[in-house]
Prior knowledge:
With 300 residues, the chain is α/β, with parallel strands linked by helices. It has a single domain (31-290), classed as Rossmann fold (3-Layer(aba) Sandwich). Helices cover 42% and strands 13% of the residues. Helix 8 (191-204) links the parallel strand 6 and strand 7 (210-217). The protein is globular, with a radius of gyration of 21 Å. The protein starts with a helix and ends in a 10-residue tail after the last helix. Mean pLDDT is 88; it is low at 19-37 and 291-300. Residues 50-56, 78, 80, 82, 161, 217-218, 246, 248-249, 252-253, 256 line the site of adenosine-5'-triphosphate.
Amino acid sequence: MALLHWHGAFSFGFLLYICCRKRLNRRPRLRGTPFLFYMGIIVSLLNHKGGVGKTTSAINIGAGLVELGKKVLLIDLDPQANLTISLGIPRQKFSIYESMRGEAELTPYTHKPNLDVVTSSLDLSGAEMELINEAGREFILRELLGQVSDDYDYILIDCPPSLGLLTLNALTSSRFVLIPLQTEFLAVQGLAKIKQVIDKVKFRLNKQVDMIGVVATMFDNRRVLNRDVVDIIHKYFGDKVFKTYIRDNVALAEAPAQRKDIFDYNPKSPGAQDYLELSREFLARVEGISTPTAPKEQEV
Ligand code: ATP
Ligand code: MG
């Protein structure tokens, strides 16, 4: 009898060990999080300027992270629902709108293995007004993500081109903010505003949030203007600028029309190469923050 008990306890212990090891191997642990408390790392793609590559980057960094072995959830937080439409996801019964109104739990749709999406719909455009009197209205998304974050390595939020309540919800939920910047005239206009909003959120609502970096999009090396803008971005953001630029590449504009990410549409295109490289650089940055670097060995 005692032997049976020991056998049961041993099997349970062994199973627990296997589960924990699996998690430890899979998840980077952010500095400051308790030892066994693993959560998907939440990142907002933010720029209140329209058409700078937020949605394209959310989809293709997400898909790039999947190529690199991660499990990813994309949140379409834009009432235009461009991310949802670009991946060809049909209208869901419960989109982010119903969840934010408290009518349903977050209901991720599996787009392909390891890539889930919480869809959006035009109804979301009314959400900012509807939630205006809701207590804790800046924390609704954070609460919702808390229910699913343990199921993913990374959660990417595609923000709308505004700095309203939806964007505020994204920022209070996020550990990191990634800013896509189109290398065009006026690209840097309004950047001070983004910095200001992130600083305010950090001060008042979410001490954890940090900018992970700025990515130059639609870059064409032949254009003097593009190169000048990149120089300005470097002066403004220093080493926060990702070394990988996303080149202007027609395949990136075509992929949404085929309802595909760039890796499924044309994995050999410059767009796929750039987003894979950016995903690698992104991972290295996040994991550099996640795990303390080992002290350098003394050179002899
Ligand atoms: P919005 O603010 O309206 O949500 P956005 O910032 O999400 O816009 P996208 O929708 O990603 O921007 O991109 C705007 C347009 O530019 C889209 O038609 C997209 O296909 C195209 N595009 C994005 N990145 C590239 C690129 N590197 N090369 C060519 N076209 C691109
Ligand atoms: Mg968009």
